[in-house]
Amino acid sequence: QVQLVESGGGSVQPGGSLRLSCAASGSILSIHVMGWYRQAPGKQRDLVSTITSGGSTNYADSVKGRFTISRDNAKKTVSLQMNSLKPEDTAVYYCFAARYSEYEPGYWGQGTQVTVSS
Asked: Can you tell me the distance from the alpha carbon of 32 to that of 53, in angstroms, rounded to the nearest whole number?
């Protein structure tokens, strides 16, 4: 079992920045990939960014150049630095962990709200 606890959401004006963090505990040695999904009201949950145990990263086209994912193995945390935020980034952001693929997350965080509004 893996437990994920998120922090760092909030409200910000367009063009602002936020940093999300996800602290992992439990059987994390079995985890291959971690990252973030997001879900806006009335929409499906979409993949935002991933980072593998080897450090390879990937981003949705909509956030490339604005978001940066990173991991601290010593602290067992994954972070998402979000810059130049837009109103369309407003969503609940969910940290996930998966043993094999980001499209089959086995573990989820509780979700944290990000609101971008003037």
From this structure: 5
